[in-house]
Amino acid sequence: MNSRCDYTALPYNPPLYTVIETEVFQWYATDIWRDGEREAFIVWLATNPLSGDVIPGSGGLRKVRWSRAGMGKRGGARVIYYNVLDD
């Protein structure tokens, strides 16, 4: 009997969520990030919707820090967001 596996494993693809950017977010984001940086944040948030710390007493708002090119997290942005995850 051959001990090798005769099938290909299916890769795990986590669900992607829709991120809706408000006009206020877009306005601030253009001031802080280049388009590629903003898009990278949106993709990251779509794949990690439960990231960041829940703000106590906010009803579920979360805050996350995101770095800017050449600035690190301390010089980056603090983003407050709310997610609605349907089951």
From TrEMBL:
<protein>
    <submittedName>
        <fullName>Uncharacterized protein</fullName>
    </submittedName>
</protein>
